[in-house]
Amino acid sequence: MSYVAIADRDHEQEHHDPQTFITKYVYSQDHKVIALQYGGTAILVGLIALGLSAMMRLQLGFPDEFSFINPENYYQFITMHGMIMVIYLLTALFLGGFGNYLIPLMIGSRDMVFPFLNMLSYWVYLLSVIILIISFFVPGGSTGAGWTLYPPQAIMQGTPGIDMGIILMLVSLAVFIVAFTMGGLNYVTTVLQARCKGMTLMRMPLSVWGIFIATILGLLAFPALLVSAIMMIFDKTLLTSFFMPAISSMGTDPGYTGGSPILFQHLFWFFGHPEVYIVALPAFGIVSDLLSTHARKNIFGYRMMVWAIIAIGGLSFVVWAHHMYVSGMNPYFGFFFATTTLIIAVPTAIKVYNWVLTLWEGNIHLRTPMLFSIGFIFTFIHGGLTGLFLGNVTIDLPLSDTYFVVAHFHMVMGVSPILVVFGAIYHWWPKITGKMYNETLGKWHFWMTFLGTYAIYLPMHYLGFAGVPRRYFAMGNTEFLPDSAQDLNAAITISALFVAATQLLFFINMIWSLTRGPKSDPNPWDATTLEWQTPDHPPKHGNWGHELPEVHRWAYDYSVPGYEDDFIPQNVPSDVAPAGRDHGGEH
Amino acid sequence: MSEAVLENGAEAPGKQGLVDDWSRDKQVFGLPWGKAMMWIFLLSDTFIFSCFLVGYMMVRISTTDPWPNPSEVFALDAFGYPVPLLLIALMTFILITSSGTMALAVNMGYRKNRKATFWLMVATAVLGASFVGMQAFEWSKLISEGVRPWGNPFGAAQFGSSFFMITGFHGLHVSAGVIYLLVIAFRVRNGFYERRGGNYEIVEVTGLYWHFVDLVWVFIFAFFYLW
After folding, report:
1. Which helix (H) or strand (E) holds A205?
2. Do B67 and B41 reside in the same domain of the chain?
3. Residue-level pLDDT at A585
């Protein structure tokens, strides 16, 4: 291994070697500690959202059985479940958690470029979570407007939580955006400006690429949510009429004149659609690295994978109105947005083919992270294909607001990213903690989660085709629905509770590993990327000891012919080991 | 190849230069981290103001009530005649001037003339503060004439809503900029950056933010007062 002096870099990177427990683990500026804080908070708040979904399923599967779930609660559960899962769990976990942990380690940097700002980002995120939690306990409860918060109903009589609930929700979102911006600026600048010697952009692992492009999407998409949140707070508190048309509420005139509810939908989905890819792109990147590592084979079509990520990121900004087909629009616009939506399928399909071709003739090790990665390919293909249905205006119109849509987006941006989250946690757990997890428990966790989620979401497609509307508290005596629809609903509920309970296995595994798990090797998966080559295991503050690593090859030199090991770490010089396929640097 | 370009300091022109920049190791842009981050932040902030302005245009187009005539609403009585946009013209002039003093401050910073840099930054901050002061005057005048976020006597209610929201958000940016300028200015004066190797890039980073706020005002001026 060869290292290069870091004298030219260190003057810019501020070093604060932590002294006390407080500065080391609480107000830490170390990206690894911040990552764990982000990840831990996100998972905790995600468990709340999981509990909420269990309550919803209880009502849907067994209506009238549970007196503590009334229609108001039900709408609050739906809303908070969606909002927490999409923003406070997935966005925060992928970017704040994995982004923070992986970016500096994978690109050979000592930390983020501005560690103090990075720390601030976490504490502001925590504040937004606290505001969100408080909104459960204010008079009237949290908002029940649905996670899309469409006006006018979000702030009109009849919707739960229109007093403080909706205001706290919007404030919490605005605070979250501030937190994200501080973190996101750090991630982008770090990737662009603080890579180690030899680490060109085209040698970066795909995890970093996915997180990098997702962060750029976030920095450009969250502004639309911030603006719509500010406008709606004003509509609610100052009686402005940005989104509120002249409308009568319960026979009285609340005083609104001539605003445009459709404006909110445009602003919301200009954020909302890139948000799907803010969650998906890091998952794409991470799963590429997991598949390649555990199949002992270079990722198929690395350059294509990078350009596909960039193309998806760009296209995601010109498809937002496909969420609004039923709101009504000029047919030419419908044509435009349907076309762009279907075009996104091209780079996405390229990625799926490349994942499958990476597995082809690989030396596949079916360890827990690999199982979760392969599971992701399945759920993502299923969710992606139903996306093609819904992207077409004529097919979307009858299917919109049915369980088909629920099944689609849960498959594509619920189950798929969560499978990657689990795979990634199992994969990097030894690096983070220095301990191994229990492989058997991990495999049980995978199979029960994977099959269980199919038992939940496959039947939902049928329910959607049968015409079961989403967001309904109860179906009542709907004549066009067969009685068996309710049986299916009960089965879905049982599966959902089963899957929720299964997640206990994960936590048991982690606690077992922390308390009595065996010590892990510094590089248990024989991976090539830099985070496995740190001098300390687990990496210490500053990551690299005295000298920064120097990179000589791309991240995917697996099974290179003529070399003793079946992997060549990125920092092995090319005169020691043959270059496999070297990307970047040479034209 | 790209590394060779780096070592002799010369950069290839045109498309090849762009390719070389992006395929370099270590860093894409030959900028300090703070400056790169400020550029990225400004890009994000651009999207915020774009969303505000697009939202404003949309409500202005879609409202059914007539839009108040800006030349009349924003007129100021001078010498017994109502002069349209008098105050706004003055405010715009002041803000543009402050960009000039800021540019001079950046120049003086690179010449390591701490005293001139300090006073030019203070001048910029004073011009910015007077802009905010005149905006407060404009707000109070409109409020006294009955303009409120939820309605006004001149026409569509969205006029007041958009006006207070957008100019308020911009005014917050200017106020934050004034504080930012003063902090940096006093650090320049008391030798904070001298102790850190005499690097005055930070003045330019501050300047980037200030010019951006200025540029945003030009768009608000055009879309709100001239339309």
Report:
1. none
2. yes
3. 41
Three-class secondary structure of residue B120 per DSSP = helix
Q: Would you call B78 an interface residue with chain A, using a CB distance cutoff of 8 Å?
A: no
Q: Is the pLDDT of residue B16 over 90?
A: no
Residue B36: list chain A partners with CB under 8 A: 189, 192-193
Instruction: Using alpha carbons, list the distances in angstroms from residue A396 to A268, A317, A318, A387, A389.
Output: 19, 20, 18, 10, 7
If asked whether residues B6 and B48 sit together in one domain, one would say no
Can you give the pTM of this predicted structure? 0.93
- Measured N-to-C along each axis, helices A302-315 and A261-294 cross at an angle, to the nearest 10 degrees, of 170
CB distance A534 to A522 below 8 Å: yes
Nearest CA in chain B to A226: B48
CB contact under 8 A, B58 and A263: yes
For residues A156 and A253, give the distance between their C-alpha atoms in angstroms, rounded to a whole number: 11
User: Which residues form the domain of A550?
Assistant: 523-587
The number of folded domains in chain A is 2
B162 and B89 fall within a common domain? yes
Write out the residue range of the structural domain in which residue B3 sits: 1-30
Q: CB-based contact (8 Å) between A505 and chain B?
A: no
What pLDDT shows up at residue A324? 94
Confirm whether A59 is domain-assigned. Answer: yes
Rounded Cα distance, A121 and A115, in Å: 10
Residue A358 has a CB neighbour count (10 Å cut-off) of: 23
Judge whether A7 is closer than 8 Å to chain B, CB to CB.
no
Give just the sign of the alpha carbon dihedral A339, A344, A350, A355: negative
Evaluate whether A290 touches A423 at the Cβ level (below 8 Å): yes
Indicate if B80 and B2 belong to the same structural domain.
Answer: no
DSSP code at position A74: H
Handedness of CA B181, B48, A83, A417 (dihedral sign): negative
**B47 near A223, Cβ under 8 Å?**
yes
Write down how long chain B is. Answer: 227
Interatomic CA distance for residues A553 and B25, integer angstroms? 12
Could you tell me which of A161, A164, A194, A184 has the C-alpha nearest to residue A76? Answer: A161
Total Cβ atoms within 10 A of residue A48: 18
Q: Is residue A555 in some structural domain?
A: yes
A474 secondary structure, DSSP code = -
Phi-psi region of A581 (alpha: psi -120 to 50; beta: other; left: phi over 0): beta
Q: Which of A18-22, A209-213, A318-322, B175-179 has the lowest mean pLDDT?
A: A18-22
For residues B70 and B22, membership in a common domain is answered with no
Whether B54 and B90 share a structural domain: yes
Domain limit, last residue, from A199, A231, A260: A199
**Which of A 69-128 lie inside 8 A of B, CB atoms?**
113-114
In-domain check, residue A239: no
Locate the chain B residue with the closest alpha carbon to A256.
Answer: B150
Q: Quick one: CA dihedral A360, A364, A366, A372, positive or negative? A: negative
Say if CB A239 and CB A303 are below 8 A apart: no
Model confidence pLDDT, tens digit, residues B56-109: 999 999 888 999 988 888 888 778 788 888 899 999 999 999 999 999 999 999
Question: What tokens does A308 get?
Answer: 């596909």
CB A96 within 8 A of CB A39: yes
